[in-house]
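User: Structure please.
Assistant: Input sequence and predicted structure:
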Amino acid sequence: MKNIGQYRWDEIPISLKDKIVKAPLEEWGHLPMIVNTEWSTPNFSIIATSDDNDLICFLNLVERTAKFDGVDTEVVGINNLITARKYRGKGFGRTVMDKAQGFIFDKNKIGLLLCGDDVSTFYESLGWVKFSGSLFYNQGAKPVKWHQNTYLFSKESLANDSIDLCGLPW
């Protein structure tokens, strides 16, 4: 990996953004929840590319005010950490996540990610803590309960019963 950087979503070159937009459907498009859910547009992306501009790994970041037990709380959502198949198992996902965690700490916010069981161990190895309460997000005008895993990343211990994303999931 020669190039790793953080980019505002609206500043990513269209050819690279197209790859980033298509990757989640290629990875998880067989899951009805993925194709039937409206997702947030990111604010930033952390992107790793090769010298010849091949997309190695990326994740998106969504900044938002959520409600933790009804209290406004500044969060950074991690969205779609994906490493291209030919680069998997080489530490690129960990490197990109390290950069994202630095972003979260620099902003003095709480990290929040939504994921399936198959990647829980990875996030736990990076210091993310599983949230055992209920998480809600918006789809249209109605709130929907998230039924997969929710993980938090914070400098301080958190003990909350519910989180409302106050918008679309990421």
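Residues 3-164 form a domain with the Aminopeptidase fold (CATH 3.40.630.30).
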